[in-house]
Amino acid sequence: MKLFKILCLCALLLPTAGCWDQNFLKQQSLAFSIGYDAKGKEIHSLSIVRTLKPTGSGQTEPFNNTYEVTGKTPLHVRATMNEITPGTYSMGKLRVILIGEDLAKKDIYPLFDLYFREARSNVNTKVIITKGKAVDFLKNGYIQGNLITDAINELLVSGEKESLVPKTTVGGLLSTMYNPGQDLILPYLDQVKGGNMKVAGLALFNKNKNTGKTLPGEKGSLLLLMMNKGGRTAQFSINEEKAKSRLNKRVVIISNKSKSKIKLKWDSGKPIYTIDLKLNVFISEYTNGILNKRDIDKLENYISRTMTNTAEDVTKTLKESNCDALGLGHMMMVQNPEKFKGYDWDKDFKDITIVPKVKVHIISNGILY
Q1: Is 31 exposed, middle or buried, given 0-12, 13-18 or 19+ CB atoms closer than 10 A?
Q2: Nearest Cα residue to 234 out of 324, 154, 166, 313
Q3: What's the CA gap between 183 and 125, in Å, rounded?
Q4: Could you give the CA distance from residue 349 to residue 62 in angstroms, rounded to a whole number?
Q5: Are 73 and 14 a contacting pair, CB within 8 Å?
Q6: Going by DSSP bridges, is the β-strand pair 234-239/250-267 parallel, antiparallel, or unpaired?
Q7: For residue range 318-365, what is the model confidence (pLDDT) as tens digits?
Q8: What is the edge-to-edge ordering of all strands in the sheet holding 270-286?
Q9: Which residues are CB-contacts of 141 (< 8 A; sequence separation ≥ 6)?
């Protein structure tokens, strides 16, 4: 009787065995990068599909194929891509999404609705805003012999480590998009001569729309440190006004540890935010000679004042752009929800008082000193 029950159970399991939802890679056209641009009321898109190219003796190498279409929505774009690519067009391995700055000035949520809902979407896909048209960044397919997707991805990974850009992926966008007290910042790429690219700063957003303003270079890095979203290091250069020679004017520091605290207090019913940023740095370049303890103290104070002035410029740009990248509205919403309800944050943010202060501590001025 026991054996009979086991046989019956095995018979019932047989129809359920196997994979019911198989997707063979050889039957798919895998998109590794895609660019979106505005074209009238439609979306112009270019997709990089990775294939393997025979090189002889049974060897293969990765090769890029480009497909360019126009559609009304990202889903329409995908369907149109599927009509012209061999096999099933798939975005499951997508690594980078590029959005042209003009298209980004519209609400970018509709571009990502497909990725948020599709079960096979890669939530680790990086998102980038481009200066000019996004498709122009992908048309060559290569940068100095490197596949374009790999080159862009490595550029961003390096920028994340050096606090030039935030770690922004599809999976992390949704929470910020639907947070009434915080706005997006995204990496901003530019093209240079020879088809190369560079990180041009951070694109500032207001309510999912690109404001058209950016924070370039060190200002963008300083914002990331103020947000506690910096990478392993961050480099800053300061001009020393009292230096006698042009060659001695530049002081370069590298921060390898930072801590930022944002506090909210009220004065006569108005909110005042203070941002205290502490940086541990080592001197990477200082051509005025060997520093003694007294020189280091003076240099610390000078760099702290200079970087505090830069931080004030950063917060001024944020307010002018109406971009609450620091999440100050979210802080008020959590600490004082009733008072936050009395604000129209989109209109009132530009009048909020923000007081940043940067304190620099030099922990090393050279391995030989």
Answers
A1: buried
A2: 166
A3: 20
A4: 49
A5: no
A6: antiparallel
A7: 999 999 999 999 999 999 998 998 888 888 999 999 999 999 999 987
A8: 234-239, 250-267, 270-286, 353-364
A9: 48, 64, 66, 147, 148
Name every residue whose Cβ is closer than 8 Å to that of residue 67 and which is 6 or more positions away in sequence. Answer: 46, 47, 49, 81, 84, 85
d(CA 361, CA 280): 5
* φ/ψ (deg, to 5) at 223: -60, -45
The answer to whether 178 and 333 are in contact (CB under 8 A) is no
123-161 exposure pattern, b = at least 16 Cβ within 10 A, e = fewer: eebbbbbbbebbbbbbeeeebeeebbbbbbbebbeebbe
Spatial separation of the C-alpha atoms in residues 192 and 198, rounded to whole Å: 7
**Strands, DSSP E only, in the chain?**
28-39, 42-56, 59-71, 88-90, 96-100, 126-130, 142-143, 146-147, 185-191, 197-206, 209-215, 234-239, 250-267, 270-286, 353-364
What is the pTM (predicted TM-score) of this model? 0.86
The pLDDT tens digits of the residues spanning 170-217 come to 988 988 888 888 999 999 999 988 778 899 999 999 989 999 999 999
Token readout for 228 is 């506690």
Q: Quick one: tokens of 59?
A: 């060897």
With vertex at residue 132, the alpha carbon angle to CA 207 and CA 163, rounded to the nearest 5 degrees, is 65
